[in-house]
Amino acid sequence: MKTDRVFGRKEFNWFGEPAAWAADGDVLDVVTDGKTDFWRETHYGFIRDNGHFLGFATGDAFMAQLRVQANFEELYDQAGLMVRVDERNWIKAGIEFSDGQAMLSSVLTREQSDWATAPYLGNAADFWLRVTVKAGVLRLQVSADGKTWPLVRLAPFPIASRYWVGPMCCTPERAGLKVRFSEFLLGAPLDRDLHDLT
Q1: Which of 6, 64, 110, 149 has the greatest CB tally within 10 Å of its CB?
Q2: Residues of the chain below pLDDT 70
């Protein structure tokens, strides 16, 4: 069942709307289309901008967090959060299946994409992400329980008057990854110390 409200909000924009998705209250269910991805140039030489991303508009500073549930099984299966200025400036982060296991992954793109991965020690089928953007700095955190938030990445990020942020998922090698997104929060930056894990 598609709806005009997702996470209780009417103002959202699909970038690469999937054929199959449904929203009910605080839950968004997505089934990925085939050969979907976000990537720009590095190593592979190609540009992909057809992944699934549900964007909510923000001002020039914000915090967003999200719970993600999925069974990652095929190469490059991925789901998590995305922050986007435009097609050349964005970050996607979450779990991505690579080298036979679910990895904590982030791709920061400023004209060209980078890719950072690490083994994820929590339950990759059920995790939380938080991203904070303020004054040209992006802070990315992950949580296994929605309570403790270790740092994943701290990076410079383009300053803009508006960003898009929200759930992201892609399957470059197949179709049919089922992803459940829930507990989406979007608000002002938390302004906590870098080593404050709450």
Answers
A1: 6
A2: 1
Residue 3, pLDDT score = 81
Question: What are the structural domains of the chain?
Answer: 13-187 (2.60.120.200)
Residue type, 26: D
Number of residues that this document lists for the chain: 198
68 vs 83: CA distance, rounded Å? 16
Nearest to 25 by CA among 8, 42, 37, 11: 8
- Residue 151 to residue 192: CA distance in whole angstroms: 12
pTM value is 0.96
pLDDT digits (tens, 9 = 90+) for 145-166: 999 999 999 999 999 999 999 9
Q: Which of 16, 43, 44, 47 is nearest to 32 (CA)?
A: 16
Amino acid at 10: K
- Decide: 109 and 37 in contact? Cβ < 8 Å: no
